[in-house]
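Objective 1.3, modelling of assemblies. Example input:
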Amino acid sequence: MAALAKTFLTITAEAPFDFEQTVTAHGWVALLPNHWNNQSKCLERIQQLTDGQVVQMTISQAGSADSTEIIVHVNHTKSLTTDGKEEIIKIVRHMLRLDEDFSALYAIAGKKGAYYEPMMQGFGRLLRSPTVFEDLVKTICTTNIQWGGTKRMIKEIIDAFGHPFAADSRQKSFPSAWDIAQKDFKTFNAKTNLGYRTDYIHLLACRICNGELDVESFLNPAIKTADLKKKLLAIKGIGNYAAATMLMLLGHYDALPVDSVFREFVFKKYFKGKSVPQARAEKIYKGWGKWKYLAYWYDMTR
DNA sequence: GTCCAGGTCGCGC
DNA sequence: GCGCGACATGGA
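Predicted structure (tokens):
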């Protein structure tokens, strides 16, 4: 076992900020290499850095629940360079969306009455992955499968192609597009049981690596939602539902999802269990402008 | 054994 | 542009 060194990094978020709400806002926290320790209220994650080193990050909130101080406890086996430290901070800021401004959302929430008021305490930061690639793979693995299946498939991908943490080789990072693309389809298929999603994920990795597709550029905030949706739908395996999920993860909240969960929730809460057309269901959140998805998500998870 | 999952693709019209 | 069957896999 390699010797372990520890480094503490701190990050200050802007108020209002709610660490636990942010991390557990949706299912991603339960997908490897993320792990939520509910006792210690820490988000643990194995992460490979640009220089190749694989580290273990334990992310938590300092002090009380309304503190804006975030501590990243890094376990590493090689020395952590200044670049490495900066990269970790950048990754954590990205995952927790510390640079997103929700003040316009809270302004609407403040006018919607008591039910939506708690939103103003930092709701809206939905946990995301360090890369768009990882979010795409995870989203593809939520289609036409139950949640247990999603967790199994993501674990298989990581076990087969992730990079081990030197101090505990059972724990691995999420593989890069290159890690997957460098295996031929047969090898990739043999090591995972992703059903027909195997083709989609391998093709996605290959197209990223050969330069056909630059999915990280999807993070550019200047891209209009409609254009971004087109780019997403052009990816094999991404349809209407998956594109809506990805738009949410990419910080575009103006579109509502089109999946069974959305429909069921809205029918039950607003239409006495009766099904109505999608357009009618969407009217429920029309007062939320470009924040519709977050209004729905708040309503759904409350 | 059989059904189906927070769908998507590719075809035919 | 819309309807419809096929699609891999494992868990209920």
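The two ends of chain A are 45 Å apart (CA to CA).
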